[in-house]
Predict the 3D structure of the following.
Amino acid sequence: MDETVKTLIVENEVYLAQSIAAKLVDFGCKCEIATTVKDAIRNEKFEVVLLSTSMSGQNFMSVVEKYKNSIVILMVSYINNDTVSAPLKAGAKDYIMKPFMIEELINKIKHYGEFDRMRLENDMSKEFIKDIFAQITTPEVSKKIELPLLVVCPSKKHADAYAVRLAQAKGVFLKSIRLDNFTDFKMIKNTPSNTVCYLQDFDLLKKSDKQALIESVSQSNCIVYSSLSDTEWPYKSIQIESGDSPLGSGDILTVEDYIKSVLEQFQDKYPDIELAKKLGISRKSLWEKRKKHGINKKK
């Protein structure tokens, strides 16, 4: 194991407890031993508690209750309601039959440790995403909304928020895919039913690639983002008004400053013909504006 795991071994057979502890040390566990239930109730935190259910005359359920937020693994000599079923319902994670191979015990500790880490990361990610989109208002979402769906919005952050909330409403995973360097449209078609693909940079695709994508996703669970209100799309679509300035600023700009800002922020996201159209100038003028402001277009 990569980290030291603080472990409490609750076992009245001292030699057995010491033997387990000696073997676990080699796998990165820092072990303490308690030979009675009373000794096991400590004002300390343990990541793992190995609890023997063969401690005659002692009520080990208080140990399960005390460490129910830890990884409690029962070490049992026989299986019945008192030794396995009731402790598992009270919060123990798993059990292992005595005698056991130490590798089997290590695998259980690793499994539940990784599970707890993944659950913590998942909870943290959910809180982080919730905080990011807390101030963003989007249309109401429902699991009944049909896919594939085109989300049209000048603000990508609003579209992101809508995609996340829609996936949550449907109870599925959301897989983000940028289309600027992506051509495996068949992969999107074969996406598992418990996952929705969130396709971005649709506006950057060539016309032929857009058509290929549209044909590929006809029966797929996907959300496609576009900032262009005139995007051609044969399936369901939704228009979201964000109320944001395209440049993200409240300042009043001169025409030249406005054109310069648009070029700096959007020239690599849209083809020249589309960018010139939005600015109301010719492609030749667009080239001249780039030269004037010293802005180089990526190739």
About this structure: The first strand starts at residue 5 and ends at 10. The beta strands are 5-10, 29-34, 48-52, 71-76, 94-97, 149-152, 173-178, 195-200, 222-226, 236-239. Residues 102-132 form the longest helix (31 residues).
